Amino acid sequence: MNIFRFCGDMSHLFSIIVLLLRLRVAKNAQGISVRTHELFLAVFVTRYLDLFTTYYSLYNSCMKIIYIGSTAAIVYTIKFQEPIKSTYDKSQDSFLHWKFAAAPCGVLAFLTHLIGSGIADFNLLELLWTFSIYCEAIAILPQLIVIQRYREIENLTGNYVFFMGAYRALYILNWVYRANTEKGYRHHWVVYICGVIQTLLYADFFYYYFKSKSQGGKFSLPTNA
Predict the structure, then answer these.
(1) Residue 114 reports pLDDT greater than 90
(2) Does the residue 142 lie in any domain?
(3) Which alpha helices (DSSP H) does 118-154 contain, by range?
(4) Does 40 fall in a domain?
(5) How far apart are CA 152 and CA 163, in angstroms?
(6) Structurally, how many domains does the chain consist of?
(7) Is residue 107 part of a domain?
């Protein structure tokens, strides 16, 4: 544990709290992608199966349970709870996430694991963990597409996406810090590459987010974006 990882975890947790607050207060899901959260739920479920096999710390276990439970709550709220369900616009959130995100990540994870370990050392938990790394890298895509389509986004929605991006950026700093301070630190190049890709996906959003904040206006994208 270090300050960068802790701040990254808190940023991630705060983004979830902001989104749940936005859903409960506004009573609508306009501008929110349920498909992004279905992907994140798949990420957390496949990554945190070690909850049943390995104990690291109370903090670690609690955060894993919170991520799974809160993400499941977001999906359930948007898809099944009225009046929020009626405000969710499927036509805007139309990215085929299982076909063009989850499935390719599954194939890539299988090939990566097969090449790295071989049939003799095949490990299902390792395969699912690898899938979660690939899938998390692009899980935010449906949400970013929805933002592009709506152009103008409520402040709470913009804040939610910002803290999600900040979480990943802080985790990159966490990796750099650990690599320079921990002896024998094991480098995960797949994790690094996917983390950088995920952070870069937020670059355009960050630009317009900070621009709107500096101008004191509502978060919006230009019509030719």
Answers:
(1) no
(2) yes
(3) 124-138, 141-150
(4) yes
(5) 18
(6) 1
(7) no
Q: What is the mean pLDDT of residues 48-54?
A: 89
Cβ neighbours of 71 (radius 10 Å): 22
Gap between the Cα atoms of 215 and 31, Å rounded: 22
Q: What is the mean pLDDT of residues 81-90?
A: 92
Burial of 165 (0-12, 13-18, 19+ CB in 10 A): buried
Provide the strand spans (E) within 41-194: none
pLDDT at 223: 62
Structure tokens at 79: 């898809």
Write down the residue that tokens 């890709």 correspond to.
Answer: 197
Q: Model's pTM, two decimal places?
A: 0.90
Amino acid at 143: Q
User: Each residue of 11-26: pLDDT tens digit?
Assistant: 999 999 999 988 988 8
Q: Does residue 80 belong to any structural domain of this protein?
A: yes
Are 146 and 31 within 8 A, CB to CB? yes
Report residue 169 as tokens: 């950026």
Give 123-135 pLDDT, tens digit per residue: 889 999 999 999 9
Phi, psi dihedral angles at 220 (to 5 degrees): -155, 155
φ, ψ at 152 (rounded to 5°): -110, 125
Crossing angle of helices 203-215 and 155-181, rounded to 10°: 120
Domain membership of residue 190 as a residue range: 3-92+136-215
Greatest alpha-carbon span in the chain: 59
| 200 vs 222, residue with greater confidence | 200
